Automatic annotation (TrEMBL):
Annotated source species: Williamsia herbipolensis
Designated name of the protein: Flavin reductase family protein
GO MF annotations in UniProt: FMN binding; riboflavin reductase (NADPH) activity
Domain Flavin reductase like residue range list: 21-164
PANTHER family referenced in this protein's UniProt entry, alphabetically: FLAVIN REDUCTASE (PTHR30466), FLAVIN-DEPENDENT MONOOXYGENASE, REDUCTASE SUBUNIT HSAB (PTHR30466:SF11)
Amino acid sequence: MTVTVTDLRPAADGDALRSAYSCFPSGVVAVCAEIDGVAVGMAASSFATVSLDPPLVSLCVQHTSSTWPKLRDAPSIGVSVFSAGQDALCRQLAGAADHRFDGVTPAVTDSGALFVPDAAAILSCTLYNEIPAGDHNLVLLEITALDADPDIEPLVFHASTFRALEARA
């Protein structure tokens, strides 16, 4: 037996679309590099794993971003998976560009990948490809080196707020 669905809202309804997108929980990452001695970075909640061979991850960046054009040309980009409890830091990296690293002591590699402290995982990446996708660009990053601690709980973004994971038996 099937049930007929009659109350679907059009995807052009921005509020309905945002509400539907918010139903899907996602991890949150910092995407950062040191450029000419200056820390440049942003938060992204559209992060996803893509491929093992080659090792790829993706994120989506709005066309209006003023930070991504600076990061795009960096020789190495650091991706830090925020850990639980780093919601204030995540909000800070999503805020005003000139205050994103206030009070933060990031770690940096020789190639310029920059990482936030106490992250659940850090990935040193290079730009693999960038694909226009609506009002965003789909950015594919190739991982060149990494470190991770699966015992550290990640920060989760769901329904426009930060949440914790719950292990189930």
